[in-house]
Each structure stands twice: as C-alpha cells, then as structure tokens.
Input
Amino acid sequence: MFAVVKIAGQQFRVQEGQSLYVPHLQGKTGDKVEFSEVALVDNDGKLTLGDDIKTIVKAEILSGTVQGDKVIAFKMKRRKGFRKKHGHRTHYTRIKIESIA
Output
C-alpha cells in the first residue's frame, strides 16, 4: 500500500515504515504529524483518486533540522570586475511514516 501525499508544497510517494527527508516542518523530535492532503492511494492494486480519498497519513518526526548540501549562486560580468558569490543550505526534517489510514 502506498500513497502520494502533499507535504509543504511538494508531492511524495510514501509507504508505511518509510523514512524520508521533507522540507522543514515545525515540531520537535518525537512529535506526531498528520497529512490530510492525499492525492492518490493504492490499496493492493486498487487506485483511488481525487475527492473520493478520505485517507490521512500519520508520521513521526525523527530529527528536527537537517541541513542539505550547499548550493552556490555565483554571478559575474566579464571585463567589469563584478563578482558576487551567494550560498545557502536548505533545511529539511526527517520523518517516518507510521500509518496510512
């Protein structure tokens, strides 16, 4: 059984017992979260789409904030002496899917 869930503006394909990194969520380690925006549910080959879905995905936060890889945005204009270097690391939250019900 799997479901496609919208978490923080992005869609993820999840299964029970799976752990994944999602964009940063508010909460501490050990908190329980629920996701009600489910786009698709597959229950042993039977697909359910759209407004027929009454499923809620429950998960537990495993680690609060995890930083992703550093992304560098470098701007330069040739022959002008203009150089700018900006960088950032995106924050993620690690969650574990407990149930799809």
In short: The chain has a mean pLDDT of 94. The first strand starts at residue 2 and ends at 7. The chain has one domain: 2-100. Residues 2-100 form one domain.
